[in-house]
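Entry for the shared binder. Reason: the reviewer on the internal report wants the predicted structure included alongside the sequence.
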Amino acid sequence: MAFLLILLILLAGFVAARRGRRKLMRDIGLVTAYCRRQGWQQAPPDRDINARTLLLFQATGTTRLRVQAQYAGRYRGVSFQAAQVARPPRPGRVTAQWVSVVYLPRPVPGPRVQLAKRGLSSANFLSGRTTIDNGPFDATFHVVAEDEAFARSVLRPSLARALCGDARALDGVVALEHHHLFALRHGQLTPEKLRAMLDLLVDIGSSVDWQAAPAHRPS
């Protein structure tokens, strides 16, 4: 009897895994079809994605991530990459963890700035805190920066005010990495999520006066 019960449990797990796999491929297919309609391409997995940002490691606690789908194209005149990555199941976690990211080249390399809505679960991994001396923004966002003067210059009042009322910024995490701008949201990539993160990053990139930002002073 015990053997039969174990066999049934294993069979149920196998069936559930097959169904989950089919749904995953169906969802990825929807994003792929959307990208093709926009003239964007499915691209080889970015093997260096973990080296381009700290966000993925901070959000998942591991570099053992699988790039399940990768896309590349141009949007509003800017080249971009988008990916759906997965953290494999582990003991104590029987399901995968999905993370969606969009990133594009940073116009001028420089120090790292990360921001996420205060209280957002994914913001808990951001250690430390930088204030930009803007009351509404500081009350809304958790900011971590390598250079506080640079962060205050980038997050000037007009951009800070816009971000406070922007649902796209409030739903995920944004990072100005050394060479890229990143947006991260938990969950599988969807056409709506991809477009929202793209628009957010392009808007931020065009709102920053990169040449006027102060030079980074290493600590």
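Summary line for the report: The helical segments are 2-37, 49-52, 55-60, 135-140, 148-154, 157-164, 167-170, 191-207.
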